[in-house]
Structures are given as C-alpha cells and as structure tokens.
Fold this protein.
Amino acid sequence: MQFRRIDQLPPYAFAEVDRIKLELRRAGEDVIDLGFGNPDVASPDIAVAKLQEAAAKPRNHRYSASRGIPRLRAAICDLYRRKFGVELDPETQAITTIGAKEGLAHLMWVLAAPGDTVVVPTPTYPIHRYAPILTGARVADFDVTADDPIGAIREAVEREQPRVLVLSYPHNPTTVAVEPGFFDDVVALARERELLVVHDFAYADLAFDGYEPPSILQVPGAADCCVELYTLTKSFSMAGWRVGFMLGNPDAVAALGRLKSYLDYGTFQPIQIAATVVMNEAPEYPSEVAELYRSRRDSLCNGLNRVGWAVPPPRGTMFVWAELPEPYRGMPSMEFALKLAREAKVAVSPGSGFGPGGDGHVRFALVENEHRIAQATRAIRRLLNE
C-alpha cells in the first residue's frame, strides 16, 4: 500500500548520528550527548506532587476538555498578564494544546491548504517547515540569520504573498534573538499584507545576561493578526507532560478549538491540574531553569573558545549554534557531526538537518551537566589538535 503525506517527509536528518551514538554505547564507549534538545532538569516538585494527588482521584480519569480546563486557561492568561503585561480572555483567546508541536501542526490544518503559501524561517526547527507542507501548502523561506531580519521577512512576504508567516524567537537552532520593536514592524506588515503571524515562543523564559524575550502579543492590537504558542516544556522543564497553549487571535483560537474537538479530549486531566498549580504557585521556576542553562552555556562556550573553536554565547534558548571550526570549514555538517561522534565521542546535531542555510554549522544542546560539558570540550580539543 502506498501511504499518503509521509513521502513528503525526508529521512530523519539526525538518524545517522543517533545510529553511531547507539553503536558506540553498545561497544562500551561513553558518548556525551549534546544532540537532542531533551531537557534533563527535573520538573518542579509542586507539579509532581499535585499530579500524584490529582491522579489518585477517579473523577480525574474521565475525558477532559480539548480546549483545556477553565482554570488552566485562566492560569496561562494570568501568567501573560504578570510577565508581559498582556490582557487575554481565557474563554476566547486561549486554548490548551498537547505541547506546542501538536498545536502548530493542527493549527496549520485550519490555516493552510493546497494553493496557499506559508513563509517560514530557515534554518529552523523542522516542524515549522513540515507542518504546512503536510497540509499541501507551499513553503517559502526567509533567512533567519539575515543582518536585517525584518527586511528579509518583508522581502519574502512581498515576493511570495503568503497567507501565514511563521516566526520563532529566541530561535531554534540559530539562537537569534530580537528586541521588542521588531514585533511592531512584524504586526504592521501583517496588517498591511492581511496575513496571520504564528509566533512559536517555546524559549520565552530561557534568556541570559539581562535579555528579556518579547511576546508578539505585547504589540497593541497584535491579537487582530497574530497567535503565539507558549509551552511548559522548556520554561518549567516539563517536556514529557505535553502542556502547551495557543494564545491571541480569537478566530484562530476558535478554529483550532473546533478542529481539536474532533481529534482529542485534551491532555490527561491530572496533568492539566498540575500545570495550573505550577504556573500559579511556582512562577519563579523558569528563572531557576534559565540560570542553570546560562551556567552550562558559559561552560561550553568558554571551553570551546579555549580550544580554538570561536563560538559566541547565545542570549537565549538551550542551544549553542556553532559554525564549524576553522580546520573543517567546507566540510558538510553531517560529516563533521559523525566525525565528532566517532572520534571525540560527542554527539551534536548537524546544521543541515534544520533546512537550507543550516549546513556548515552544528547545534549543541545544553542537556548535560557542567562536568560532562567540560569532558566534551577536552575531547573536542584533542580532535582539533590532531
């Protein structure tokens, strides 16, 4: 049988690195995995305790609401009021998603179809590209690393006439960050061109050195033409819990809610209850998580710079985006990542896996402790000194 849609998905770009990593570990080698951005920080104790308490009550084992329980939607709106000064109506401007990835993928079902165009950044997190592709829409790029980012976006929008523009800052994998005024220009462009902006705000709370990532919804009137995806995955280190939100434009929220009413009954209700409590009662936890990642960032960047691999420290995300070191410039990033895995026993993600513009780079995920990161930089030094 021929299956539909999946032939549009290329082979998993990181599978070969994963295969080598597994092969080495089976042979008894100690591989330091800085490839997969899977948070290793514990979820808040209060979330775990509330989950246990709520799961012990049989009434919470029934179907829940696909839009999210009312208190959870109220909690995310309260968080936006406290953190960003943004007022949102939990009934019409907030919906719970099963992580940001599910929210983005299903949102594209109601925004795009064959014949439509969606503009996305490149290089970028793969779901930004493949969520619209799976709807049958055409995808066009803009260079997320351009010196004039709003100019690059405007040029792509004017050239391609898209229905939807996908953005994400701080950005995975490039760690590009923007200042508040940037989104004023984006919202003005969206109004001018009559398109909807989808901002994936996965790294809203992972910022360093005094940088505070702006929400696109802070721009007055942004909810007329924008939605934002927020998640507890990175901010509260609750990756496996799958709790995300889409916020902003009421029509888009209603459309996604209608679709999801046919697809799911929401996240397990005890998880929703625990997520409500953690946002209300542990609002400082994201700052603690960010400080841990900042320390790891410093350890990795300082270590790489000491061994001759010049890598600028990012202002946000849980990643470091690195141009290949001088001796290996011109080598495909996949080849370099495999060399790093085999010879230094350090796993990273090849930049080519993130789409056009990614080759010539690798992405480090800050998912090991500082001792292991120091071990990795020593191994990289030996490789570079060969």
Summary: Residues 62-281 form a domain with the Aspartate Aminotransferase; domain 2 fold (CATH 3.40.640.10). DSSP finds 13 helices and twelve strands in the chain. The chain has two domains: 6-42+285-384, 62-281. The mean pLDDT is 95.
